């Protein structure tokens, strides 16, 4: 066992049930997934404090790959060591990967999956409201003072209107925080809630050597993850088409700063025009499937890999290629966390470095706002066009393409979550059922 624990601290078995629930409900992209994790481990169970949650999130936002999956791995490691990190990270991915593989097979064999689309239509509308709730919650805890607010607004404008690269935005915020630490004193990571400390913080107070003890095993696990990632890629390099698949998606694993959308254009260009694995229509269908399944949106790469295998050698080759893509996409994610998290945990005592991560937290509010608006436009309107106005690149909806059913379902979700306070599961269930009836029965 990685770490001892007190009687009131959740066992790994108890935590596993929570991580599985998160994995099954993690629809809607990183903003909604981060909100769901915060609700489970901070708000409801009080396992981890706001400060530690946002501290971990700051680090994950700086990494390539799906930040929500890496955040789950980080939090799992904090609670139960390497085994906890593996459980949390794997359960975040596996439910969505299983659904994506099944939908990929259906797509190739049947062409369309209208009933699945009908079922998840309402779910997407509910997820939009969950993202808005996340934005309000994180902003309340992370923005204290003029400079954090200014950074949040600047990050939103930079991403949504100026189309600046995601790494530039978060690294600039980190640099500002490092240079002006006093501007982030007393709230940069979010204030702890009134009441007793979170269970993890209480345990660390009782066992001050807990994190250093866990760090040694984490570094070993990180090196093993790196080896397990690189080894199959090297072995397959001279074996077409597996070498091309392993190499291409390994590259994607180290350049996906800012999530799946940041690299979709490059993936589409290379996979469609360079390798000829799929068509542009297939690529759009894959993105749609990824948006309606649990797990990180980067699972769209699994769909691309599946079609690459099918194009080469048929259906079973597609299944194997899908599994290979999952391996080379997520093995490095575990490596980054296990190698980096122990170092990042030491930054709690470094004022300037802590302020740098607090600057990232402020920028994250702008990132979530940008994602929320991007998602809202595409849920509520059927057509959205990008318009250039000097240096600005704005996504503007075609007002005539308003989807009244999507707007109605979003309002229903808002009433359930904010007005009636039915909770996440009931809100998702009610809105998904309503969406299914509207699309499947009314057309």
Structural summary, described in words:
With 443 residues, the protein is an all-alpha fold. It is built from 17 helices and 2 strands. It has helices at residues 12-25, 30-44, 50-61, 67-110, 114-142, 146-161, 166-179, 199-206, 210-236, 242-255, 264-274, 280-291, 300-313, 315-345, 351-380, 404-419, 424-441, and strands at residues 384-389, 392-397. The protein has a two-stranded antiparallel sheet. Strand 1 and strand 2 (392-397) form a beta hairpin. Helix 4 packs parallel to helix 13 (300-313). The chain is globular, with a radius of gyration of 21 Å.
Strand tally is: 2
Q: What amount of the residues lies in strands?
A: under 5%
Cα shape: globular
The helix content is over 70%
Number of helices: 17
- What's the end-to-end separation, in Å? 54 Å
Class from secondary-structure proportions = mainly alpha
The H-and-E topology, N to C, reads as HHHHHHHHHHHHHHHEEHH
